[in-house]
Amino acid sequence: MRQRYHEQLDDLSEMLVKMAEATTAAIQRANWALLHGxxxxxxxxxxxxxxxxAQFRRIxxxxxxxxxxxxxxxxxxxxxVVGQHAAADLDRxxxxxxxxxxxxxxxxxxxxVQIEGxxxxxxxxxxxxxxxxxxxxxxxxxxxxxAAELERDDDRMDALHRRxxxxxxxxxxxxxxxxxxxxxxGRFYERYADHAVNAARQMVFLVTxxx
Length: 211
Fold this sequence. Notes:
Blueprint: H1 2-36, H2 39-70, H3 74-107, H4 119-141, H5 144-170, H6 176-208
């Protein structure tokens, strides 16, 4: 019985890592669709987001069963709680990547981010991939120090978001529709980074026991 319990805990950890890897793949594909006008990547992002949500539901089911049947304590309980919270953030990241891809699809065959004012968005895309990769590694190896570094990366994203808004409010020359989509993209990337930080922050709690 206890062997099965520990196998389920290991399964929970493995599912969380795979989910994090999928969110990294989703943002990479969404960025490719956005930066290169690649319509095929949009469908890949959508499929990945659906798979991420399915994984989230599996993690929730395993967590609830463990809590109901095993009454875990100490580090085991922290792992289950962390798994649920981090999985919720990762699921939201997948959805945000899908939103980014949909904007790329809406402008196809044109490429919105080739507009001069979209320079901050191109940088935000790069930072989002870096944050996703770092969050995934922090989850994989349970590295609290690496997870804490994401706060600084998130500050970079916030600065780019402010830069984008300054452009939208003072120097945008390419019409209302593109301005709305640029504003949405900025918001999606900013929220993607926030959820990545939140997911990685759970590793700090898992390792140290401190929120």
